[in-house]
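Bench notes, bay 3.
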Amino acid sequence: MQTGKYKMLVTDLDDSLLGHDLRISSSDKDALLTAARKGIIVTIATGRMFSSTLPYIKELGIDVPVITYQGAVIKGLLSNETLIHIPIENDMSRDLIRESKKDGYHIQAYIDDEYYIEQENEHSDHYKMISGQPGIVIEDLEECADKGVTKFIIIDKPDKVLELRDRYADLYGDSLQVTISRPNFLEFTHIDATKGNAIKYLAQKFGIDRRDIIAIGDSYNDISMIEYAGLGVAMGNAPEDIKSIADYVTLKNSESGVAHVVERFILGGVIS
């Protein structure tokens, strides 16, 4: 492992940069701001909507494009320009909506940085609390299928989400990325809309070699970027199978694990 030559740092938000209170610790914020002042490109890669990510972008003063919707949308704050948008194919959207509704699961459809639900319930209330964004209630989600859906989420209990991941991956894995972001969130994006592909796009845009990138995450939706980056980092609170594919395991999100990475690999001394 090296220090001193990294040029880009990309971090996940929930359960990585954000604590359990959904805030960025002062240690993490100070470390990222220091890295940015040293010329490191600092940005976010999250499954969140852009609007839900915006408060954290502003808090960190990020002026480079950010990765949202698991990599389906890359957008610049200052220019408000969407650099990448990879929606799910309409036929696939319609099929997924029908399949999930047949089984009675709570599913949300995301279009133009808003999300649609058929009813408010404990799952939608939980999501609203985390994201800070209310859903739009419509009678039938199939109305969304032909409008270029960016992402779907099924929300359920963690054990059910694990079961559904395998089932839906068998059904749609050739066309969709089927991944878990939080233990109770099963997310669906276009097969090409991954955090790893999004970081690759930004690396090419800025002329940065993948070996000079640090990527930090905690969950299954972070695997592609952890594997792509020169230094792939798993949070200390990540599941063991995420830790096993990482180059380095940092402290937990409750212990400012992002700051630890910055201090050790960007600001710190020589690592053997």
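Next record in the batch:
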Amino acid sequence: MENQNPRPYGVGDASFQAAGGEAGLRKLVDDFYDAMDQLPEAAKIRAMHPVDLTVTRDKLTRFLCGWLGGPKLYAERYGSIIIPQAHRRFEIGPAERDAWLACMREALKNQPYAAEFKQYLLEQLYVPAERSRNKD
């Protein structure tokens, strides 16, 4: 019999599984950075990143794996991370935070996730995006 009551998002690895595991998150991150290259409102935050996004893509994918309850891949490769400290060298205000979230919203359109999970993920991603903000 199929489980009619899956674990809610945010419990155990339910969010990691809903995102398609590491492979699903890699696709999300690739689409996220593609959106950052395309959205005019993201030009300023794109300029905060290196031209070659290979390592940047890997870091975000690995971070999201652990953050969503999956394996702690970021820590395995890069060590621990404290979101505000990792971003303090950049000037991040509400506009930059919102541009980052707009890129994620755009990337989510391409994912085969349940609509409820997409909404949940955007709401949850607001927290680290806001924690990265260091100016008004």
